[in-house]
Amino acid sequence: MTIRQRVEVLARCGGVSVEEGSSDPVREVLERVRPPRQFPAKYKAEILAGYERAGRDGKGALLVREGL
Predict the structure, then answer these.
(1) Between helices 56-66 and 41-53, what is the axis angle to 10°?
(2) Taking the CA of residue 20 as centre, how many other CA atoms within 13 Å lie in the half-sphere pointing to its CB?
(3) Chunked in runs of 10, what are the mean pLDDT values of the chain (68 residues)?
(4) Rounded (10°) CA dihedral 47, 50, 56, 62
(5) CA distance 28 to 67
(6) Buried b (16+ CB within 10 A) or exposed e, 37-61
(7) Residue 29, φ and ψ in degrees, nearest 5
(8) What whole-number distance in Å separates Cα of residue 66 and Cα of residue 7?
(9) Cα–Cα distance measured from residue 25 to residue 41, given in angstroms and rounded to the nearest whole number
(10) Chain-centre distance of CA 45, in angstroms?
(11) Counts of helices then strands in the chain (DSSP H, E)
């Protein structure tokens, strides 16, 4: 199986998209829909307590560290 055939199979399965009119397939990973993140109440309470204790720089660092 050639690379082009593999890309076309993946495109039919929804794994990649193929740009038409190109001799080489251009592969692009399609974005997957993620459900909304859910956090337990204990985790939320710990983050809020840490946020309240932190100074200005610490608040930003906390948010970045937790990916919020």
Answers:
(1) 150
(2) 0
(3) 74 59 58 84 93 90 87
(4) -50
(5) 25
(6) eeeeeeeeeebeeeeeeeeeeeeee
(7) -75, 125
(8) 36
(9) 47
(10) 25
(11) 3, 2
Residue recorded with tokens 């200005």: 56
List Cβ neighbours of 18 (8 Å cut-off, separation of 6 or more). 7, 8, 11, 25, 26, 27
Q: Enter the pTM of the model.
A: 0.45
Compute the distance between CA of residue 3 and CA of residue 5 in angstroms, rounded to an integer. 5
Q: How far apart are the first and last CA of the chain?
A: 44
Token code pair at residue 34: 């993620």
Domain boundaries, the chain: 1-33, 34-68
DSSP string, 3-67: HHHHHHHHHHHTSEEE-TT-SSPPEEEPPPP-PPP---HHHHHHHHHHHHHS-HHHHHHHHHHHT
